[in-house]
Write a structure and sequence with these properties.
The protein has 553 residues and is an alpha+beta fold. It is built from 19 helices and twelve strands. The strands form three sheets. It has a five-stranded antiparallel beta sheet. The protein has a five-stranded antiparallel beta sheet with strand order 5-6-12-8-9, with no helix packed on it. A two-stranded antiparallel ribbon has the order 1-2. A hairpin with a 2-residue loop joins β3 and β4 (451-454). The protein is globular and about 90 Å long. The two termini are 24 Å apart.
Length: 553
């Protein structure tokens, strides 16, 4: 049955992706330009023979922004590699299909391990993978979109450590690492629910055994080793460097009425599906086990967190403000409520369906979810028909990227606009104190001898060069951000520099023509962290092979 269900999941994945890809266009909204620029940088660096990307030399207006250091990007490599064989638009949709099917497969096997029921797992995978909120994320919010892929495995790992087979601690270690490689904020959100589950365990079981504590600590320790390349840059380049990050604030909450009524509409967005809303309204009448009551409570609590009725004002000045958009909790509400929907609906169906009828039922469910998803995506397709193509703009434009349509022929137009959200993330706070400073970076403005120069950069992977002519010895303030491990050379010779009042590289020049090159050289600790991480993954793989062999006996 596994192959049948995976085949049906692949069918829905391909059908929904082809429906979007047939438009031969992309709607560049929300975080699209931020992530598309990151993928473009990775692709161009790969094309020039550089595997690692540290700073934005080719995109982000050549400012040298280090979002690559502090925002994980490993799961963008498949998208970048697809650019070598497909057009820009098709490369994105191919990557979209890969992520969607990975989500469906991981969801299916995670639920199978939890429930031991194939039909319930299939229903769970369909409803979770093609949930309206996840479909919304797949349009532009790619960090969270990737993290959602691994949430079912993560909470399976938490369940095994706290209630199930504690010897399967590795599930928590692996899934936690995968979420961290996708989206750091999702790690924080997942920890909130992990802590709640830990407290519930202490209350319902009147404590927790030492063996389970050991398994929990072991999974956490191994997870840290697996994600060292994500953690290390924060210690080597972020802490104590006066850098900014995404602004912590609760900027939007929903009303319960909005959540309720909106969930019964067809289109994707900040909402639950009507199936999950019905689960909220009716599941309490059918739940019998304590375990399912806990899941139901977590689902309701996640919904409550999305609304303005939760006292979010009390979180001001605390780490909880990092959430920014409370709609992020819809991913967790979908996860918990879909478990109940899948268990309840599969039990009812299996009482009345056997043999060949079960095959017909499974195919019917796949077709229904495909049609439901196509209906959700139809508004996106309609938008693509009516929105205008993104026009050209100057290479140093300060105009924010508009919500416009991208096709293969105008795909590169987006990179000349100021990135709408995230253009100045992880830059020195001193560079953000005025709009004038920000715009001077976008417009490639340097300062020399009291004059403002507009320079044209010469670009290589992780490296930006400028030709600067000075009539006398003087300092030049370049429009490139200075980080702890930034390197500077003048006329091919390593040169000292300081950070200016824009947070940029300031270097002393001699009279005459000078070639100033700004680059980034990662700390040896970073490369050591990669080695340790790879060895940890290999060691864990060897352990799993031996564990499975022993478990089979």
């Amino acid at each position: 049955m596994n192959l049948l269900y995976l085949g049906l999941l692949l069918f829905v994945t391909l059908l929904t992706t082809l429906y979007l890809a047939s438009s031969k266009a992309i709607f560049a909204f929300s975080d699209w330009t931020f992530h598309a620029a990151r993928v473009e940088e990775i692709y161009l660096n790969l094309k020039s023979g550089s595997f690692f990307t540290f700073i934005a030399a080719r995109t982000f207006h050549n400012t040298g922004a280090a979002s690559f250091l502090f925002y994980p990007y490993i799961f963008f490599y498949p998208w970048a590699f697809l650019r070598f064989i497909l057009s820009p638009v098709n490369a994105f949709y191919a990557w979209y299909a890969l992520v969607t099917f990975a989500t469906a497969a991981i969801s299916y096997f995670s639920m199978k391990a939890y429930s031991k029921k194939s039909l319930a797992s299939f229903i769970f995978s369909l409803v979770y993978t093609f949930a309206p909120y996840r479909l919304y994320l797949g349009g532009a919010v790619f960090g969270e979109y990737l993290a959602v892929t691994f949430l079912p495995l993560l909470f399976l790992g938490i369940y095994e450590v706290l209630w199930g087979d504690k010897k399967k601690w590795y599930l928590l270690a692996i899934s936690g690492a995968l979420v961290a490689y996708a989206h750091i904020l999702s790690v924080f959100l997942s920890l909130e629910f992990a802590v709640i589950l830990f407290i519930i365990k202490l209350i319902t079981s009147r404590g927790i055994s030492k063996d389970r504590i050991k398994s929990l600590l072991l999974s956490a320790g191994v997870c840290v080793f697996l994600v060292l390349p994500v953690i290390v840059p924060f210690f080597t380049d972020f802490i104590g460097q006066g850098l900014s990050s995404a602004k912590p604030s609760i900027s939007y909450t929903m009303g319960p009425r909005y959540l309720l009524l909106n969930s019964f509409s067809a289109q994707k967005g900040w909402k639950l599906s009507f199936m999950l809303m019905l689960t909220i309204l009716t599941a309490w009448a059918f739940i019998k086990s304590r375990r399912n009551w806990i899941i139901y409570g977590l689902g309701l609590f996640a919904c409550f967190l999305t609304t303005r009725y939760f006292p979010w004002k009390l979180t001001a000045g605390t780490p909880f403000e990092m959430v920014q958009l409370t709609a992020r909790y819809l991913s967790y509400a979908s996860l918990f409520l879909t478990i109940l929907f899948a268990l309840g609906s599969s039990s009812v169906l299996e009482e009345h369906v056997t043999g060949r009828k079960k095959l017909a039922l499974s195919c019917s469910l796949a077709v229904f979810m495909a049609l439901f998803s196509l209906s959700s995506l139809s508004v996106y397709r309609d938008t693509l028909k009516h929105v205008q193509d993104m026009p050209k703009t100057s290479a140093n434009s300060t105009q924010p990227a508009p919500f416009k349509r991208l096709r293969d022929y105008n795909y590169y137009n987006q990179f000349n606009y100021k990135i709408l959200f995230g253009a100045f993330d992880y830059m020195p706070k001193s560079s953000l104190t005025s709009v004038q400073k920000q715009n001077s970076l976008l417009m490639h403005q340097a300062y020399l001898n009291g004059k403002t120069l507009t320079l044209s950069p010469l670009i290589k992977a992780n490296q930006i060069s400028y030709q600067v002519k000075s009539e006398k010895a003087a300092d030049v303030d370049l429009p490139v951000i200075a980080y702890k491990h930034t390197t500077v050379s003048v006329n091919g010779q390593k040169h000292a520099f300081r950070r200016g009042n824009r947070g940029t590289v300031v270097v002393g020049l001699k009279r005459g023509q000078n070639t100033v090159t700004v680059g980034y050289k990662a700390s040896p600790v970073f490369y050591l962290s990669i080695v340790i991480s790879i060895l940890s993954w290999l060691a864990l793989l060897i352990y799993l092979v031996k564990f499975k062999a022993k478990y089979a006996q």
